[in-house]
Amino acid sequence: MAGFNDYLKFARHLFIKENTLPLYLVFFITERCVAQCKHCLLGEKRTGLTELTIAEIEKISQSLGRILFLLPTGGEPFLREDIAEIVSIFYRNNKTANVGIPTNGFFTERIVSAVENILQGCPDLDLAIDVSFDGVGEKHDIIRNVPGLFEKASTTYRELADLKKHYPKLNLNVGVTVSRYNQDHLEELYHYLTRTLGVITINHLLVRGNPADKDSIGVDPNKYEAFSKLLENGAKNQTLVGYHNYAFSDFVNAVRIVRQEVINNITRTDKQQLPCYAGSLGGVLLSNGDLYPCELLDKKIGNLREVDYDFKKLWFSARNHEIKAWIKESGCHCTYECFLTLSVFFTPTSFQHVLRQYMSLKYNRLLKKC
Ligand code: SF4
Ligand code: SF4
């Protein structure tokens, strides 16, 4: 995992208002997918243009500084046959320490083989794979519009769990997208995941933005919070031991608990709770080279193909400066978990709260040992 000094370096950049390159990059490496999920956000962001090639990605990566966290996403990221090569470019050029890849789990063989290639090519990398589950059995298949996907995703999870026995740097997670279509079945899903599949980390995402099926949004806050509480209790009672391979697993879980409180407050008040660092500490690259502060805002910074793949040229441009000012002045807010992690970590008031939660988790762990 990244060293604490790295975080301090980024914090210094941020707090003294120096220009900083992103430490967190969400990279939509492809738009292609076999599923048609009701909650999919890609709809409006689909560019229909050619994906960046390996040679183009190499140039972009060389123009970047250190990227601590990379999220290659999509579409279904494992549809890119060169996914292991993409990760290794960032590992090599940008000293990327953590990579998280979501997958719908459809292509078991291809996924397991690519994950093993990544682990072998990047031996010091903390790699997290999040297999998506939104319901048990047919409920999952209906939400994702792929018959048989639930069984395939379960098989993929099991095979990755076998692989994990040989690769301690692999963290295997489940991602649950909470929408109006599954809000009444989340407890059933939790029990399937923890009791039948043996899942030890569940990341839940609240449907947001402009999903393919608009009826996905409007989740009952009480049901969402009840599921969040179930996950928090799972972390506290050690059912969900979280990123247990990480040196700072309690710390990661503490950040997640505080982030959840922030999200609950946002859903309840519909107001910004913490500053957003999209466009400074976090950025989003689409598969055709379009660069955004985040994929939810319809505010493109530019396209990397048009600036000879020079990331800094766009990142430090007047256009991005303008967008960042807008984000700040408008009090822009949303429940985007990844970007809220940055907000929680790099805002002094919430960071203090993280430290308190961390102490509490440590204390619980000690009590459990006694
Ligand atoms: S949410 Fe993911 S898996 Fe579902 S259709 Fe969209 S890109 Fe594909
Ligand atoms: S608050 Fe949300 S929508 Fe606004 S800039 Fe940040 S991540 Fe994007």
TrEMBL record:
<feature type="domain" description="Radical SAM core">
    <location>
        <begin position="29"/>
        <end position="192"/>
    </location>
</feature>
<dbReference type="InterPro" id="IPR007197">
    <property type="entry name" value="rSAM"/>
</dbReference>
<keyword id="KW-0479">Metal-binding</keyword>
<dbReference type="Pfam" id="PF04055">
    <property type="entry name" value="Radical_SAM"/>
</dbReference>
<dbReference type="InterPro" id="IPR013785">
    <property type="entry name" value="Aldolase_TIM"/>
</dbReference>
<keyword id="KW-0408">Iron</keyword>
<dbReference type="InterPro" id="IPR050377">
    <property type="entry name" value="Radical_SAM_PqqE_MftC-like"/>
</dbReference>
<protein>
    <submittedName>
        <fullName>Radical SAM/SPASM domain-containing protein</fullName>
    </submittedName>
</protein>
<dbReference type="InterPro" id="IPR058240">
    <property type="entry name" value="rSAM_sf"/>
</dbReference>
<keyword id="KW-0411">Iron-sulfur</keyword>
<keyword id="KW-0949">S-adenosyl-L-methionine</keyword>
